[in-house]
Amino acid sequence: MNLGLRALLYTARKWKKTLLVFCLILSISTLVLSGLAIADAQEEQTEEVRGTTGASFTVQRDISTGGWSSGSGGSYSTQEFMTEDMIREIASVDGIQGYDASLITLPQIFNADGESLEHENYGFYNYGSYNSQYHELFLSGRFELVEGTHITDDMSNGIMISKELAEWNGLKVGDTLTGIYYPENNTPAVDMEIVGIFDVVADKEDQVNMYDDSSYYDYSSYVFCSMEAAEGLIKGWGEDGDGISEAYFYVADAAQLDNVIKDVQNISSINWNNYAITSNDEVYQNISSALSDTGTLITTLIIVITVVSMVLITLILFMSVRSRKRETGILLAVGIAKPAVVLQYLLETLLIAVPAFPLAYICSRQVAGALGTLFGKTAENVIVTPEHFMLVTIAGCILLIMAVLLSGIPAMRLKPRQILSQME
């Protein structure tokens, strides 16, 4: 009787053991295939987070390296301000998707009837802005646009106000406001149109207190206006003490933030002794840390399942070979070589695995989505691919071969007479 037929007849005769090994291989393969699909979905989610969350960095005057002077408005730092050319040069570095800058003024704002707007502070904390969507307060999630549009660099007289301020004063997008830096000093009046309204998502206590002028203003008193309008507010006033003090740069791929900052610091035309760079990637770091922990958990589970299962299969095969000592001894006694006997055991296992792997592929396509939801994935994003099937099939066959060889070592070390003498 040839080797293949003996293997086939044995698997049929020992159908209970065959069914046990089949179910075990099916279960293991299904779980591993599902785990690989979930791991891929996790990686895709990580890539998506890198592209959608992004990160930013701030370039601001380093007043610690500059001098101080006094004027009619009090003392002020003589450190050089940022220029528009400098900001645009930084924004041209590869990896930077957008930018904004801050020309801070503290104007009074009046409605169309000339009445001062009602709010909690004497004045307003106003950011002159190029592209307000890239301002640190919006990138960090503390502010959120709820109506209208952001300030853009092609606007000459746009202004954004808080939802709370709009409700207090009955204002809406399209209304006109007038800003005056110092009415008592006859500084220029600048007319501005409300283009957007933002909501304050974070409380004041959530802000990192920088101990500057903004610390005295409630978030509802913050406004953003076009850079051209901000420059118009300070005409004839504060030439020494007012200018663009900081700029924000948005990096689409948060994982490249450090590399982009290094490229920026290599710009030789900027005296970096006068400026400080601060990275702002807390949101990305928090999310990516959670995703990384989940990815590690998934990988660990796949490894644990594989190792434990292979140990279990090896034990089952070892017990099976041990129970077949008499058969093994007879086969060896009639002249069948040890490698042929081991090959028969291997064929028996592979005959069980051949239908188990394809069936596991079919089952995993149904199971993976449900398991993925336990890790926060949507079922449609957890997909078992043919590549996963090929990987599991090849790796599974290699592991099964190793298991058969290990389980057959004790019996194959004995001679036929020794094997038969141990039988009762």
From TrEMBL:
The chain crosses the membrane at residues 297-318, 389-409. It is a multi-pass membrane protein. InterPro entries: ABC3_permease_C (IPR003838), MacB_PCD (IPR025857), Macrolide_Exporter_MacB (IPR050250). Keywords: Cell membrane, Membrane, Transmembrane, Transmembrane helix. It is found in: Cell membrane. Residues 301-414 form the ABC3 transporter permease C-terminal domain. One of its GO terms (cellular component) is plasma membrane. One of its GO terms (molecular function) is transmembrane transporter activity. This is ABC transporter permease. It comes from Anaerostipes butyraticus.
